[in-house]
Amino acid sequence: MDSKTKILIGVLVVGILLIGGWRVWNTQIENKCSSDADCRFWNSCGCASRENLLCLLFELFGPKVHWEYYPCRSCGCLNGKCTSWNAIFEEAQKTKNIELCYEIRDIACKNYCLMVLENIKTKEEVIIFTDKTEYEQEENIKVIIENNLNQNIWYYGVNGYATLYSCLNNHRYALKVQKLAKLKEDIWDDVEAHHFCCFARCYVKTPELKELKPKEKILGEWDQTVYDSEAGINGKLAEPGRNRFVFIYYLSNNTNQPNYAYSNEFIIKERSKVSEEYKIYLNSRQFIPKPGISNTLKSILVNTSSKRIHVLLQFYHIPNNDEKSKLSNLNVTLCRYVPNNAYFASIPTKYLTEVYNLSFVRWIGEILPEDKMSSIIQENRIPSKAINPDGTVNLTIMFFKDVSLDDAVQIISKHGGIVQSRVPITNDLVVIVPTEKISAIANEDSVQWIDIVPGSPIKFN
Q1: pLDDT tens per residue across span 406-450
Q2: Could you tell me which CATH number the domain at 372-452 has?
Q3: Among candidate residues 325, 399, 319, 409, the one with its CA nearest the CA of residue 367
Q4: Higher per-residue confidence, 25 vs 384
Q5: SS3 117
Q6: How many distinct helices (H) and strands (E) make up the chain?
Q7: Cα-flanking dihedrals φ and ψ of residue 409, to 5°?
Q8: For the chain, is the Cβ count within 10 Å smaller at the N or the C terminus?
Q9: Pseudo-torsion of CA 108, 109, 112, 118, nearest 10°?
Q10: Which residues have a Cβ under 8 Å from the Cβ of 448 and sit 6 or more positions away?
């Protein structure tokens, strides 16, 4: 190679390094962007470019950081740079300029900004607002309460939640729901959303008088159940219409002088045929789940010591990249799509409630053993060619993609099975197991699917 060629190659290398360095500077330091989709909220370094390699390295190798729910912890592309919407919210709050709230493109943050600025304008210092303004029937309605006074306040609650129900003789509670009765006169009627429930009858803890310090927040939730004189002990579903929450609080632990804060209005929509959009189709069953966390899954969590659990996770729509980032920040793994708008997913048990609190999550439920077995196995129609002379059966068992095959082998061994081969590309094991152990294997959280291996019985030496 002559000297001219070497010089030309050297110039090209330097040019590539300069161009690459310029691009790295733009994305890593300046966090440049052209749309909201170019930005994300990183656990490690906050709002930055989605291509920020430094943040990715911190995310992968740095200490895990958990962020509590906050409506304005989201990112957008503002003036060509990835910026937290919280910066606009804080400026709007500082200048008391409500028009700035309309520059926020994240719906939850914009609603929060408008609510806070409206409350500053009307000098209401304890604020209450819902996570959305429209809900399906049966969807859980979440509410956030914030103390912006310069003193502590008191309310009735349990474990950081303001309660709708009461076991107390005087029937005091922190939240009530009102429905708009007459629009023109702005007349609101109380909805019997609370129930006089004690743990002897309903297995819930009695609400206690709690203290809320300045700038602290609490949550509340309503499952749209009404307990009026016609509903009975199990209640009935609230009717569609315009509603609001009322938060009842006290300026001391003397509860003879209540104060009231009113939320934004929210709408419960008419049930319609669009609910079919949320029908889940499994080989074993088809159903439309009620929004929320299933009671069966809650019971499972009470009795498990596992740090992760595989669940059915349904969304209001297929998550976009920003929403997938929010799931990733909570260490959620989406394993396989399930129609409609659902996935088999792996979730840390400690973050289950926080995952559900994401505005785009509709329902989280359990995966049943029968959801994991082919119809031939469920109906006990295993063909003779899949059964060995000793009565064992030849199966293929697929494990969820976040489960290592080494761990899968241990599960099969625990149930007296023998692993014949591994199929890494699909995370399957080909196994021989006693027939009576199939149900127990299907009960294993790590198992996704069980089917027979067609063909001749395996011969033993």
Answers
A1: 999 999 999 999 999 999 988 999 999 998 999 999 999 999 999
A2: 3.30.70.80
A3: 399
A4: 384
A5: helix
A6: 11, 29
A7: -60, -40
A8: C
A9: -130
A10: 310, 335, 336, 344, 372, 398, 399, 400, 427
3-state secondary structure of 120: helix
- Specify whether the CB–CB gap between 164 and 176 falls below 8 A: yes
**What does the alpha-carbon distance between residue 432 and residue 381 come to, in Å, rounded to a whole number?**
17
The string of pLDDT tens digits covering residues 32-63 is 888 888 888 777 677 888 777 777 777 676 66
SS3 276: helix
- Identical fold at 124-268 and 273-367? no
Which residue, among 198, 177, 197, has the nearest Cα to 241 in the 3D structure? 177
Q: Say what the pLDDT of residue 14 is.
A: 47
Fold category of 273-367 in CATH: Alpha-Beta Plaits (3.30.70)
Question: Domain segments of the chain: what residues?
Answer: 11-93, 124-268, 273-367, 372-452
SS3 state of residue 191: strand
Bridge partners, 418 (sequence order): 432
**pLDDT-based confidence at residue 75 (cuts at 50, 70, 90):** confident
CATH T-level topology, domain 124-268 = Immunoglobulin-like (2.60.40)
**Mean pLDDT computed over every residue of the chain:** 80
